[in-house]
Protein backbone atom coordinates (compact mmCIF):
# COMPACT_ATOMS: atom_id res chain seq x y z
CA UNK A 1 0.00 0.00 0.00
CA UNK A 2 1.41 3.40 -0.99
CA UNK A 3 1.22 5.94 1.83
CA UNK A 4 0.14 8.79 -0.38
CA UNK A 5 -3.36 10.17 -0.25
CA UNK A 6 -5.03 13.40 -1.14
CA UNK A 7 -8.03 15.36 0.06
CA UNK A 8 -10.75 16.80 -2.14
CA UNK A 9 -14.34 18.00 -1.85
CA UNK A 10 -16.79 15.09 -2.05
CA UNK A 11 -18.67 14.36 -5.27
CA UNK A 12 -22.05 12.72 -5.70
CA UNK A 13 -20.32 9.53 -6.86
CA UNK A 14 -18.62 9.27 -3.42
CA UNK A 15 -21.85 8.80 -1.47
CA UNK A 16 -21.82 5.01 -1.84
CA UNK A 17 -18.20 4.88 -0.59
CA UNK A 18 -18.90 7.27 2.30
CA UNK A 19 -21.81 5.06 3.35
CA UNK A 20 -19.58 2.00 3.09
CA UNK A 21 -17.11 3.67 5.48
CA UNK A 22 -19.83 4.76 7.90
CA UNK A 23 -21.94 1.58 7.98
CA UNK A 24 -19.70 -0.62 10.21
CA UNK A 25 -19.10 2.34 12.54
CA UNK A 26 -22.83 3.01 12.73
CA UNK A 27 -23.42 -0.66 13.59
CA UNK A 28 -21.06 -0.16 16.54
CA UNK A 29 -22.96 3.06 17.39
CA UNK A 30 -19.78 5.10 16.88
CA UNK A 31 -21.26 7.20 14.08
CA UNK A 32 -24.78 8.10 13.14
CA UNK A 33 -26.20 6.18 10.16
CA UNK A 34 -28.28 8.27 7.81
CA UNK A 35 -30.41 7.67 4.77
CA UNK A 36 -28.69 8.02 1.39
CA UNK A 37 -30.72 11.14 0.67
CA UNK A 38 -29.25 12.85 3.74
CA UNK A 39 -25.72 12.29 2.36
CA UNK A 40 -26.66 13.74 -1.02
CA UNK A 41 -28.33 16.72 0.62
CA UNK A 42 -25.30 17.45 2.79
CA UNK A 43 -22.68 16.55 0.18
CA UNK A 44 -21.17 20.05 0.09
CA UNK A 45 -20.26 19.62 3.78
CA UNK A 46 -18.02 16.65 3.00
CA UNK A 47 -14.33 16.31 2.27
CA UNK A 48 -12.96 12.91 1.28
CA UNK A 49 -9.49 11.41 1.31
CA UNK A 50 -8.54 9.17 -1.60
CA UNK A 51 -5.59 6.86 -2.12
CA UNK A 52 -3.28 6.90 -5.14
CA UNK A 53 -5.76 4.71 -7.05
CA UNK A 54 -8.67 7.07 -6.34
CA UNK A 55 -10.35 4.87 -3.71
CA UNK A 56 -12.09 6.76 -0.91
CA UNK A 57 -10.24 5.96 2.31
CA UNK A 58 -11.64 8.62 4.61
CA UNK A 59 -14.32 11.25 4.94
CA UNK A 60 -15.50 14.01 7.22
CA UNK A 61 -18.00 16.84 7.26
CA UNK A 62 -18.52 20.21 8.84
CA UNK A 63 -22.09 21.17 9.63
CA UNK A 64 -23.01 24.73 10.57
CA UNK A 65 -25.41 24.82 13.50
CA UNK A 66 -25.65 28.54 14.26
CA UNK A 67 -23.94 31.80 13.55
CA UNK A 68 -20.88 31.08 15.65
CA UNK A 69 -20.86 27.29 15.93
CA UNK A 70 -20.41 24.30 13.64
CA UNK A 71 -19.94 20.58 14.19
CA UNK A 72 -17.30 18.22 12.80
CA UNK A 73 -19.18 15.04 12.01
CA UNK A 74 -18.90 11.74 10.16
CA UNK A 75 -15.11 11.79 10.39
CA UNK A 76 -13.83 8.33 9.52
CA UNK A 77 -10.70 6.66 8.20
CA UNK A 78 -10.94 3.18 6.69
CA UNK A 79 -9.57 0.47 8.98
CA UNK A 80 -6.52 -0.23 6.72
CA UNK A 81 -5.50 3.44 6.72
CA UNK A 82 -5.81 4.24 10.43
CA UNK A 83 -2.70 5.76 11.97
CA UNK A 84 -1.34 7.21 8.70
CA UNK A 85 -2.36 10.81 9.21
CA UNK A 86 -5.57 10.68 7.15
CA UNK A 87 -7.86 11.66 10.06
CA UNK A 88 -5.57 14.47 11.11
CA UNK A 89 -5.40 15.87 7.56
CA UNK A 90 -9.19 15.64 7.19
CA UNK A 91 -9.76 17.35 10.54
CA UNK A 92 -7.39 20.19 9.61
CA UNK A 93 -9.20 20.68 6.30
CA UNK A 94 -12.61 20.67 8.03
CA UNK A 95 -11.43 23.23 10.58
CA UNK A 96 -10.15 25.42 7.75
CA UNK A 97 -13.55 25.16 6.15
CA UNK A 98 -15.28 26.02 9.44
CA UNK A 99 -13.07 29.07 9.83
CA UNK A 100 -13.85 30.17 6.26
CA UNK A 101 -17.56 29.83 7.04
CA UNK A 102 -17.16 32.35 9.84
CA UNK A 103 -17.89 30.28 12.95
CA UNK A 104 -15.88 30.81 16.11
CA UNK A 105 -16.37 27.40 17.71
CA UNK A 106 -16.47 23.82 16.51
CA UNK A 107 -18.23 21.06 18.40
CA UNK A 108 -17.78 17.30 18.19
CA UNK A 109 -19.30 14.35 19.96
CA UNK A 110 -16.90 11.45 20.03
CA UNK A 111 -15.31 8.38 21.56
CA UNK A 112 -11.95 9.50 20.08
CA UNK A 113 -11.11 12.00 22.81
CA UNK A 114 -7.33 11.77 22.41
CA UNK A 115 -7.45 12.22 18.65
CA UNK A 116 -9.56 15.37 18.95
CA UNK A 117 -7.47 16.68 21.86
CA UNK A 118 -4.44 16.47 19.60
CA UNK A 119 -6.47 18.39 17.05
CA UNK A 120 -7.00 21.29 19.48
CA UNK A 121 -10.36 20.30 21.01
CA UNK A 122 -11.10 20.34 24.73
CA UNK A 123 -13.64 18.37 26.71
CA UNK A 124 -16.53 20.73 27.34
CA UNK A 125 -16.53 21.76 30.96
CA UNK A 126 -19.68 23.76 30.52
CA UNK A 127 -22.32 21.80 28.68
CA UNK A 128 -24.23 24.95 27.80
CA UNK A 129 -22.31 25.99 24.70
CA UNK A 130 -25.14 28.19 23.48
CA UNK A 131 -27.28 30.71 25.27
CA UNK A 132 -30.94 29.90 26.05
CA UNK A 133 -32.24 31.93 23.12
CA UNK A 134 -30.12 30.04 20.58
CA UNK A 135 -30.94 26.77 22.35
CA UNK A 136 -34.65 27.33 21.79
CA UNK A 137 -34.02 28.19 18.13
CA UNK A 138 -31.93 25.02 17.68
CA UNK A 139 -34.82 22.98 19.10
CA UNK A 140 -36.62 23.68 15.81
CA UNK A 141 -33.98 21.73 13.86
CA UNK A 142 -34.89 18.27 12.57
CA UNK A 143 -31.22 17.28 12.31
CA UNK A 144 -30.25 14.37 14.61
CA UNK A 145 -26.73 15.75 15.08
CA UNK A 146 -28.16 18.99 16.40
CA UNK A 147 -30.42 16.98 18.72
CA UNK A 148 -27.30 15.20 19.96
CA UNK A 149 -25.61 18.53 20.53
CA UNK A 150 -28.62 19.67 22.57
CA UNK A 151 -28.54 16.33 24.42
CA UNK A 152 -32.22 15.64 23.76
CA UNK A 153 -33.86 12.54 25.19
CA UNK A 154 -34.86 11.17 21.76
CA UNK A 155 -31.19 10.69 20.78
CA UNK A 156 -29.81 9.63 24.17
CA UNK A 157 -29.17 6.12 22.84
CA UNK A 158 -26.76 7.65 20.27
CA UNK A 159 -24.80 9.77 22.72
CA UNK A 160 -24.19 7.25 25.51
CA UNK A 161 -20.50 7.03 26.36
CA UNK A 162 -19.54 9.83 23.95
CA UNK A 163 -17.61 12.87 25.05
CA UNK A 164 -18.66 16.38 24.12
CA UNK A 165 -15.70 18.42 22.90
CA UNK A 166 -15.20 21.90 21.57
CA UNK A 167 -12.54 23.92 19.82
CA UNK A 168 -12.47 27.68 19.95
CA UNK A 169 -10.59 29.50 17.21
CA UNK A 170 -7.97 31.94 18.28
CA UNK A 171 -9.41 35.45 18.24
CA UNK A 172 -6.48 36.51 16.07
CA UNK A 173 -7.38 33.98 13.39
CA UNK A 174 -8.74 36.03 10.59
CA UNK A 175 -11.25 34.95 8.03
CA UNK A 176 -9.32 34.71 4.76
CA UNK A 177 -9.85 37.72 2.59
CA UNK A 178 -11.72 37.27 -0.65
CA UNK A 179 -9.70 36.70 -3.79
CA UNK A 180 -9.74 39.84 -5.85
CA UNK A 181 -10.67 39.70 -9.49
CA UNK A 182 -9.57 42.85 -11.25
CA UNK A 183 -11.99 44.09 -13.86
CA UNK A 184 -10.83 43.34 -17.35
CA UNK A 185 -11.85 45.81 -19.97
CA UNK A 186 -12.71 44.57 -23.42
C1 LIG B 1 -10.75 9.14 14.69
C2 LIG B 1 -10.17 8.62 13.38
C3 LIG B 1 -10.86 9.37 12.21
C4 LIG B 1 -8.65 8.90 13.39
O1 LIG B 1 -8.18 8.63 12.10
P1 LIG B 1 -6.67 8.23 11.75
O2 LIG B 1 -6.53 8.44 10.27
O3 LIG B 1 -6.31 6.93 12.29
O4 LIG B 1 -5.86 9.37 12.58
P2 LIG B 1 -4.38 9.90 12.29
O5 LIG B 1 -3.54 8.79 11.77
O6 LIG B 1 -4.47 11.12 11.45
O7 LIG B 1 -3.92 10.30 13.75
C5 LIG B 1 -3.70 11.66 14.13
C6 LIG B 1 -3.10 11.71 15.50
O8 LIG B 1 -4.03 11.21 16.45
C7 LIG B 1 -3.48 10.09 17.11
N1 LIG B 1 -4.57 9.14 17.29
C8 LIG B 1 -5.41 8.65 16.35
N2 LIG B 1 -6.31 7.84 16.90
C9 LIG B 1 -6.03 7.82 18.22
C10 LIG B 1 -6.59 7.14 19.33
N3 LIG B 1 -7.63 6.33 19.20
N4 LIG B 1 -6.04 7.32 20.55
C11 LIG B 1 -4.97 8.13 20.69
N5 LIG B 1 -4.39 8.80 19.68
C12 LIG B 1 -4.92 8.64 18.47
C13 LIG B 1 -2.40 9.56 16.20
O9 LIG B 1 -1.40 8.88 16.89
C14 LIG B 1 -1.87 10.84 15.61
O10 LIG B 1 -0.99 11.49 16.51
P3 LIG B 1 0.22 12.45 16.00
O11 LIG B 1 -0.43 13.62 15.33
O12 LIG B 1 0.94 12.80 17.26
O13 LIG B 1 1.00 11.60 15.06
C15 LIG B 1 -10.36 7.09 13.22
O14 LIG B 1 -9.88 6.44 14.36
C16 LIG B 1 -11.82 6.65 12.98
O15 LIG B 1 -12.25 6.56 11.83
N6 LIG B 1 -12.56 6.38 14.07
C17 LIG B 1 -13.95 5.95 13.99
C18 LIG B 1 -14.91 7.09 13.69
C19 LIG B 1 -14.94 8.14 14.77
O16 LIG B 1 -14.95 7.88 15.95
N7 LIG B 1 -14.95 9.43 14.34
C20 LIG B 1 -14.97 10.56 15.23
C21 LIG B 1 -16.33 11.08 15.54
S1 LIG B 1 -16.98 12.07 14.23
Can you describe what's shown?
- By secondary structure, this protein is an alpha+beta fold.
- The chain has a single domain, classed as Aminopeptidase (3-Layer(aba) Sandwich).
- The chain contains seven helices and seven strands.
- The chain is globular.
- The structure holds coenzyme A.
What pattern of helices and strands is seen along the backbone?
Answer: EHHEEEHEHEHHHE
CATH architecture: 3-Layer(aba) Sandwich
Q: Regarding CATH, which class?
A: Alpha Beta
Cα separation of the termini: 52 Å
Number of spatially distinct domains = 1
Strand order of the largest sheet: 1-2-3-4-5-7-6
Largest sheet: 7 strands, mixed
User: CATH homologous superfamily, by name?
Assistant: Gcn5-related N-acetyltransferase (GNAT)
Number of strands: 7
The ligands found in this model are:
coenzyme A
Global outline: globular
Count of discrete alpha- or pi-helical segments spanning 4 or more residues: 7
CATH fold call: Aminopeptidase
Q: Give the integer mean of the pLDDT values.
A: 91
Poorly predicted residue ranges: none
Cα Rg? 17 Å
Question: Short description, anyone?
Answer:
This protein is α+β, with helices and mostly antiparallel strands and 186 residues long. It has a single domain (5-168), classed as Gcn5-related N-acetyltransferase (GNAT) (Aminopeptidase). The protein has 7 helices and 7 strands, in the order βααβββαβαβαααβ.
Amino acid sequence: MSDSFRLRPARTSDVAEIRRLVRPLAEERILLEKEAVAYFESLQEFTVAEDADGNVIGCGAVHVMWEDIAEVRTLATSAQWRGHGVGKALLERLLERARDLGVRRVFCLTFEVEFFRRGGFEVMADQTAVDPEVYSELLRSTDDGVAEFLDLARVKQNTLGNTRMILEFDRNDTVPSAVEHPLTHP
